[in-house]
Design goal:
Length: about 350
């Protein structure tokens, strides 16, 4: 399929995962297989020697390095995307740095990316918002069309079974019934249709959130999706940038280990029930030793924990203090593999189902 003037042979996106889970190694390996690999900007500079002293500069420096690394690994195949969270203080600078470094795509969620076209103005880069339903998709299209004479190059629809930060209320995510991806997809397609007609082109939708395999990929594409986004399953690959201890933690987990937490980002999130999460759910506040200025809405004086430190601890394999975000279908992560193996399995099952 075509995204702007770029070709994506396999309509599969590896979702962005921060901190340090999806960097240049994973994203490049996915792109090399003719799919879309995604680098997360979230505190991507945590390994830089000056991160504690100058986190902003470290993040932008590391982002440029990781994009170039991914491009080198991809070697002209697939697409390299960057996921930038609206909720982060460095959002605008991260988008501009990603564009300057040659990212093919900017994917943006954890908030409404209403000014994303302005941040990437004049660049040959595809822009894609992450939405949780038709209302958000319509509002973004209305704003972009009115102020920038543009609509998204594609949209990522994340359902309630996605990992990490989620665009649904805590009550919805912990209730007995949750919105169906089938229904949400139809809502988003309907919201996009008037803008497709006005601008004379399709706005592809990629479905995300617990997509298990190629058969489900085919199912959603038959319903009108252009493809799917998968994240958690890519963690259990040799190419993933996280530590082996991080990967082993997810492999050993089951559905009974999942919890919904309140994040300093201001959104609920799905994570494993680790000692850290147990303390948080019991109402314990963890002292903030240092603020990295990562989230716009986070007040160090009142927040219950530092999400930067928790995510860094997780990616380093620290089970006691780590926050391990993951999909609602963690049972799909059962053993180590490789990126080519995972993508081949998805595409073969997808092709057979179609």
């Amino acid at each position: 399929m075509q995204i702007l003037d770029k070709t994506l042979p396999i309509p599969l996106i590896q979702g962005g995962m921060g901190v340090g889970v999806s960097m240049g190694g994973l994203a490049g390996a996915v792109a090399a297989c003719d799919a879309m690999g995604t680098i997360s900007t979230a505190d991507i500079g945590f390994r830089e020697p000056d991160f504690c002293q100058h986190p902003e500069q470290a993040n932008l420096r590391a982002l440029t390095k990781e994009i170039r690394r991914a491009k080198e690994i991809a070697n002209g195949h697939g697409l390299v995307a960057v996921n930038a969270m609206v909720a982060t203080r460095q959002y605008a600078d991260a988008v501009k740095a990603a564009v300057a470094a040659g990212a093919d795509v900017i994917v943006s969620g954890a908030g409404l990316p209403l000014d994303l076209p302005e941040l990437a103005a004049g660049a040959n880069v595809a822009l894609a918002p992450v939405v949780s339903g038709g209302r958000a998709a319509g509002l973004i299209c209305k704003t972009w069309a009115r102020h920038y004479q543009k609509v998204p190059d594609f949209v990522v629809l994340e359902g309630p079974l996605a990992g990490g930060h989620l665009g649904f209320s805590y009550e919805t995510l912990t209730g007995e019934t949750q919105p169906s991806l089938d229904v949400l997809l139809q809502e988003v397609l309907a919201a996009l249709r008037p803008y497709e007609q006005t601008f004379g082109r399709a706005i592809p939708v990629f479905v995300a959130g617990g997509v298990a395999n190629g058969q489900e990929m085919a199912h959603y594409m038959k319903l009108g999706a252009a493809g799917v986004q998968v994240a958690t399953q890519f963690i259990a690959t040799e190419e993933c940038d996280a530590s082996q201890a991080y990967k082993d933690t997810l492999i050993q987990a089951g559905p009974q280990d999942l919890r919904i937490i309140h994040s300093p980002v201001g959104m609920p999130g799905r994570a494993l029930y680790t000692p850290l999460v147990e303390r948080l759910l019991n109402g314990t506040s963890l002292p903030i030793q240092r603020c990295y200025g990562c989230i716009k809405t986070c007040n160090p004086a009142t927040t219950t924990f530092c999400i930067t430190r928790a995510l860094i601890a997780a990616v380093q394999g620290n089970y006691q203090d780590g926050l391990f975000f993951c999909s609602g279908r963690i049972e799909l992560v059962q053993k180590m593999g490789t990126v080519p193996e995972l993508i081949h399995t998805f595409t073969k099952d997808w092709s057979d189902s179609l």
